[in-house]
Amino acid sequence: MPREQGKDLKPEGRPELGEVGGIPLPKTTCNEWARIQSFQAKPDDLLICTYPKAGTTWIQEIVDMIQQEGDLEKCQRAPVHHRHPFIEWARPPQPSGVEQADAMPSPRTLKTHLPVQLLPRSFWEQKCKFLYVARNAKDCMVSYFHFQRMSKVIPDPGTWPEYFEIFMAGKVGWGPWYDHVKGWWKAKDSHRVLFLFYEDMKKNPKHEIQKVIQFVGKQLDEATVDKIVHHTSFDVMKDNPMANRAGVPLSVMDQSISPFMRKGTVGDWKNHFTVAQNERFDEDYRRKMADTTLTFSVGF
What we know:
CATH class: Alpha Beta
Strand order of the largest sheet: 4-3-5-6
CATH architecture: 3-Layer(aba) Sandwich
InterPro entries: P-loop_NTPase, Sulfotransferase_dom
Protein name: Sulfotransferase
Subcellular location: Cytoplasm
Pfam families: Sulfotransfer_1 (PF00685)
Keywords: Cytoplasm, Transferase
Helix content: 40-55%
């Protein structure tokens, strides 16, 4: 249902999205696009790849704890978003993600939300390792809705019924969920991609963390693995100022509207979707996902 003409159409200070190759992206990212595309990856780069709100911060913290071999003090050296440069991030006059990555010594761990077709070519050419986390579409939608409510640097999501339509149409930042997960699922057949599921990580975190340890080439003892499992649990991370975006200014994120780390559960969509929305979504989902072998074990 569209809003009435003239009623709060563009909440103050909320930027609109631009577009690159048919994919909606923040305008500041679009303005830096030539620089992002010419980014020079290195063979020992590890790129964390996710659709927004699919467990990005969670997997970042897991990877960092593995790389620091469970040393909590080292993992507290900086907020997680400074430890892993976000390559397409741009918000002048602050250093861009590309600048942060260029200044970082190797081996680098970087982050992106880009779909495969927009990733800088050098990542493929350098045969980098990619770590992808996928989360079921319904929970992604709910989490993204609440994130857009509190984030001042992306468009206002409108009401839940409005956002439901926007998300299904893929008119959100970083484009359609469906194409994103399918693209990365296909990429794993020809590139070094470890493809993880958020739902599996919730169900058996130790098992999934051990996959990551093996993928990044570490060998850790049982006690260290258990320590990582504990310190990357939602309840612990929610109280970790280096993970929960506590230091981000109110002008960027208003966590009184919705906390950055909100619930971290599987199935929260059931508290948001109406029966009619669920039926419509399922029908649309079956059609859009008919051409892939990718399936999600829960959430539907």
